[in-house]
Amino acid sequence: MVARPLLELTKPRITQLVLLTAAAGFYLGSRGHIDLWLLANTLLGTALVAGGTNAWNQIWERDVDARMARTRGRPLPSGRLAASHAMWFASAITAIGIIYLGVTVNLLTASLAALTFASYVLLYTPLKRRTSLNTLVGAVPGALPIVGGWTAAGGRLDVAVAALFWILFLWQLPHFLALAWIYREDYRAGGLKMLSVGDHDGRDTARMALLYAMALLPISLLPTLLGVTGAWYFFGALALGVIYVAAGTGLLVAATPARAWRLFFVSILYLPALLTLMVLDKVTA
Q: 0.85 exceeded by the pTM?
């Protein structure tokens, strides 16, 4: 059946994470009651754009995926889905998602969704073949959904949502650096330019991962200082940040696959825990 390969093309797990951050942004950006119908429209449109973005990423990288053991089973390199079908599907859901957000939510949120698509597919994806700085570029579209959720609820583009953007931006970097070092041989086989590909002892990757985790710690405290969240969030974020830094320090002390996986799993736990703290300790007017 074609339906399953098309669903795989959207990378459902990544799309779920996008929806989690967008929903958190919506709640934090809301003033007064939560408009559940508006939230539903926001999440539906966001899901369509996120799915289309992930699909176009796989379309452009199908030759790379075919050379990598971790990805050669994906729908396009495995031959389970024709590229022409994938292109029609990806184009349709992306366009529908952006238009839907513009009609049912607002034009600013639709524009942010379009920016997310463009920066991921047109900048990040081709840069992966050219420079290891692609990770920094890729963190931008990864951090935009929480901004889109915020603006969907009527929040202004101000310093508070900028803090949320930078939290998401910095969180991604140790997460992806750890994963890239674990699969460095795969990335080398795929011809992708990653810091980890030439980093045999893992020192450079670990150093950068720790640097970003350390930068994230003070930034993660800003929501309380800006009046978005309360004291419980502040101390919870502080504790989570220390754990994230400790995991990064462990990788720098001895770069092993086990410690890289530990950093990766800590990053997976960090984000939902932090967002939960934000939601539970939101300061209401």
A: yes
